[in-house]
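User: structure tokens for this one?
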Amino acid sequence: MKSVFVLVLSILTLQSIYSQHNVQLAVLKYSGGGDWYANPTSLPNLIRFCNEQLRTDINPEPVAVDVGSQEIFNYPFIHMTGHGNVVLSNQDIQNLRQYLIGGGFLHISDNYGLDKYVRRELSKVLPESEFLELPFDHPIYKQKFTFTNGLPKIHEHDDKPPQGFGLFYEGRMVCFYDYECDLGDGWEDTMVHKDSRATREKALQMGANIIQFVFTQ
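Assistant:
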């Protein structure tokens, strides 16, 4: 029943994302000690940018939703971030699985230190799938804004290139994971990280591409 509900919700969002704040985005709350609440200004700023640049009408106020809650099915797009450990209970795993295979979408932005934990836990959610690095010509990089070299590099950590990974179920991307990029940091208020205007603009443009891709794939 939940799968049908989410699928219908996803179809409706294609029609309503451009009108009357019918679509609301969410931040994922999880256990394990990681700071799921990092980057509190990120999603509101991305929403504002999308409403201005894509002419969407997304609710300007995102909400926090627990991964094991029934409330997760109210939101077609969920953002996950943090720096540390992630632990999903059996209920969390089943709930998130039903959400993803039923039409929901998860965006994970590694805030540095999240990688090994999300890979471990997402392998429990979708054991039949694995993260695949997306080629630079993937449509997610060619929405309103074109990124010929894939993800922009927002913050440096280990001198590694940014990578974008997709998790697929029956041919549909259900999760996009930006690694060594710090995309969510780039969405934050300017005063938080003192990023240049150009860097912040690239981060927001890539975020808008993700939103546009999710609601049109």
